[in-house]
Amino acid sequence: MVSMGSQRLPTEAAAAMALAVAIVFLVSTAAPLASAASVEHTFIVNQTKMTRLCKETLVTVVNGQLPGPTIEVTEGDSVTVHVVNRSPYNVTIHWHGVKQFQNCWADGVPMITQCPITPNKNFTYQFDVIGQEGTLWWHAHVPGLRATLHGAFIIRPRHRAKSYPFPKPYKEIPVIIGDWWEKDLAEMAMNMTRSIFTSYASASTVNGLVGDLFNCSGVPKEGYVLDVEPGKTYLLRIINAGLFSEFYLKIAGHKFTVVAADANYVSPFTTDVIAITPGETIDALLLADASPGRYYMGAVPNQAPLPDTQTPEYATRGMVHYKVSQSASSDTTTVSLSQGVGGGGYRGQSEDAPVVPMMPDIHDTITSYYFHSNLTSLRQKGHLPVQQEVNEHLFIVLGLGTICKHGHQSCKRGNSTEDMLVATMNNVSYQHPEATTTPLLEAHYYHTGCNTTTEELPKRPPRFYNFTDEALIPFGPKEMRLEPTYKATLVRRFKHGDVVEIVFQSTGILQGDSNPMHLHGHDMMVLAQGIGNYDPLKDVAKYNLVNPPAKNTVVAPNLGWVAIRFVANNPGVWFMHCHYEFHLSMGMAAVFIVEDGPTMDTSLPPPPVNFPTCSHDISLMPKEFHLQTEKSET
């Protein structure tokens, strides 16, 4: 265990929270529908200088903010976001987890659903939020830049907070875990496609602040502070926006009640640690039931142990700070109400030392496995049953491999200067379409030769072996024979209504990492997961066909597997990829094409009016949307 201090035993109040959630769900009644609204934002993407770790860094952000603006909507609302690109990079914005039903055109993936928004150009996203509520997020879907181009996307029930299937919280708080980079993110991402891995984040952050574990000038850096009132319940909307790492989150002296994941309610359970991979969101209730004082909120990344390659990983921490009146009993600790310096930094230094949590070890991967195993769906009215008849079975092996440099057909393998490391799905590495071509969605819709530029994702790997053999992790003769691969634009087609079952199998080829797999446009039912090699003769019996959790990002564990099902009922061209930035940049991705159904309601409509193509300029926004260059000192 990594010590951040002591942790207290769970209180009866915290242990009873899960029961309270269930009771509220059972006795809740319907309220009149709220009117749908139109929510409109303007995102100005530009570069600004921010200071962290005693160094000024030029970063690409939205509206001068890190994290970016929170979009708050009610289920049923229409959303319009004008993106004004004043950065030097091509950008798109992806609405992570928003299903975009019959509206794949707004999914925001360059050269898959749209042309990128080039510098000094603009683009407007328009979509409806239907049938979803909870915490999602938005981020740039271009290499590297989502580290600073991201923000929360919160969908509230149309019956208002009283219809939550848990006690109404006093406040709702986004908690975004991320990275602080002092490197050029676009260059870092480009280097990874060239097998150059020399750039790493300089710190981890909570809501954009590095916290007091970092001390570059003799003065601890500011961290995020959550002010709480004794006895109140807070809904934490937790997002992992980091590029490389899964995180463990703990608050000293407190328990969480997990109530949702990826904007889907789950059967509530109580835990003192949350495991969250890049791309995931977790909603958790926090009851402020501790003695008044200060309690660290710790976030520690994990990584696979040796013999895996070890990379720099940084813990960070914020603070939970109890606000009490000056007339509070003298039996309790008097807590300063001084506001400290701006930006939500730590409060006055005269207070007692904060309580510090005991964190999982950086090489502890089994805690994540158990956390994700605890997720089950809350079976609400209208809950969709698990489809029993499966039309398509895929067994997708996730790993690394090598291709020869300079287009050569043969080369020396095994930590050689002649080959290049890539990531694969069933031993093929995804080749992203060039910006000079037609986006795959447009080619699919107009039947203009999409098939001539793509290759079918195989249903199974070309060979079977002991996928989780740890002897494959280091370079050597055993893994060398499994290295050779190639690049192609991988596509898999599904008929409308197909029930698709996929087993994602992590491997030990040159690494033993987990793999957070994200599917655009759909939720996946997580049937089961396991450590080791998937065995269909034994593991099918473990499937949860009663209340599996619905997720848009599922975790294939370190040297393990996860089995999912989804219904291909959303026509369009949808990206499926690992949400680790290094895996995505290296090619662990594919495209799922869902064909039209038999009716207008099951078919992809034409693109919106004035939807731009790569050969046409996007008209500029009105003059009032102009570039603001600022310095932000925190």
Automatic annotation (TrEMBL):
It comes from the Eukaryota. Its cofactor is Cu cation. GO terms for biological process: lignin catabolic process. Its main location: secreted. Residues 1-36 form the signal peptide. Residues 45-158, 172-300, 483-596 form the Plastocyanin-like domain. Keywords: Apoplast, Copper, Lignin degradation, Metal-binding, Oxidoreductase, Repeat, Secreted, Signal. Its EC number is 1.10.3.2. Gene3D superfamilies: Cupredoxins - blue copper proteins (2.60.40.420). It is found in: Secreted, Extracellular space, Apoplast. It catalyses: 4 hydroquinone + O2 = 4 benzosemiquinone + 2 H2O. One of its GO terms (molecular function) is hydroquinone:oxygen oxidoreductase activity. It holds the Pfam family Cu-oxidase_2. InterPro entries: Cu-oxidase-like_N, Cu-oxidase_2nd, Cu-oxidase_C, Cu-oxidase_fam, Cu_oxidase_CS, Cu_oxidase_Cu_BS, Cupredoxin, CuRO_1_LCC. Residues 333-355 are annotated as: Disordered. Binds 4 Cu cations per monomer. Lignin degradation and detoxification of lignin-derived products. Belongs to the multicopper oxidase family. NCBIfam families: laccase. This is Laccase. The lineage of its organism: Eukaryota, Viridiplantae, Streptophyta, Embryophyta, Tracheophyta.
